[in-house]
Amino acid sequence: MKFSHSEYFWLLLILIPIGWRVLSTERFLDRLRRHFRADINGRSPWRLTGRCLLPLLALTCLATALAGPRIMVMRAGDISDNLVIAVGIDVSKSMLAEDVVLEKRSRDEEMPLSNRLNAARRFALTLFEHLDGEKVGLFFFARNGIEVVSPTRDVGFLRYMTTHTDLGDLTESGSNLIAAIDSGMMMVDSQRNIPAKAVIIVTDGEDTENDRPAILQTLSRDFGTQTPVFTVGVGRTNDVFIPIRRKGSADIDGFYMDNQDIPLKTRQVPQTLEEISAATGGTYFDLDRNSPAKVVDKLMQKIATTTAEPVDLPPRRAPFDLSPLFLLASLIFYIPFILL
Q: What is the rounded average pLDDT for all residues in the chain?
């Protein structure tokens, strides 16, 4: 047994004068009873003993409760300590589409550009704020996936890399969701000692390299359902153009064109994202219809109930506080003292 505030045991020194005072008081009262009530026998010995010992026992338990006693016990594993998550942000050109609405979170924050890329960034930052000990890695993807931060519990570093990386400079044409999922799977599989794993990809769902049947076939063949993939859709489902902006300029210089000089159109493809999540045991979330905080709350609840059962998590040693038990014992000793 260990004590977090052992200095409170100094209170036990007052038991000596208190014990002497209680004993002398009870003897004085006993003499008064014999004198005025002609009670030769006085109180029975056990009642006198109880009146003297019970307050001392109550004070001893109270001092012990204040000292913060605790013991180490084995408890069921906590999902936060046994979970690794890979978060992927789509940095393809379609994420530059400005079909989302972003607002300032504080007065000091510079007004962000309302495009899908910044919406994905804000979602990732909100997710990192809700972490409670989980290991999280960060990667970006377009045609290929690039690991940016290996799985870590250093939330500050994750926030720094997400905030200060200029995602606009990283954008490239094309998107490959299979490569994105593969990158996330490799990141979580590198943590062999952690049983619960999940992959989160924040994207508009467009894939220029694979069609939907090919994506589903690859998922069923190569990944199975061991690690769930949770998809977060960004953008609206109606077609929009992709603007071209010069760095530091508030004006639009034009729109991205295809090989035939026709303006490119983009939209969120929720069907693809829903099928990816369903095939892997994950869940699809639409960021456009909900605030990032609400999506993160629902997402973390789903991850906690999907990635691992409590019996799959290794037990852990945890402190068990005994203070309430000693406080209860103090009350149990004190109440009979009042009644005697």
A: 85
Residue 315: pLDDT over 70:
no
Does residue 194 contact residue 135 with C-beta atoms inside 8 Å? yes
Tell me how far apart the alpha carbons of residues 300 and 304 are, in angstroms, rounded to a whole number: 6
**Which residue blocks in the chain are alpha helix, DSSP H?**
15-37, 45-66, 116-129, 155-164, 167-170, 177-189, 212-218, 270-280, 292-306, 323-339
- Give me the helices (H) in 75-147, please: 116-129
- The one-character DSSP state at 212 is H
- Residue 154 scores a pLDDT above 90: yes
Q: Find, among 91, 87, 291, the residue nearest to 204 by Cα.
A: 91
pLDDT bin (cut points 50, 70, 90) of residue 170 is confident
* Rounded Cα gap, residues 149 and 158, in angstroms: 7
Residues 6+ apart with CB under 8 A from 242: 93, 94, 96, 97, 255, 256, 263, 264, 265, 266
End-to-end, the C-alpha distance of the chain in Å comes to 33
* Residues 6+ positions from 236 with CB-CB distance below 8 Å: 99, 100, 267, 268, 288
Burial of 86 (0-12, 13-18, 19+ CB in 10 A): buried
Nearest residue to 178 via CA among 284, 298, 287, 275: 275
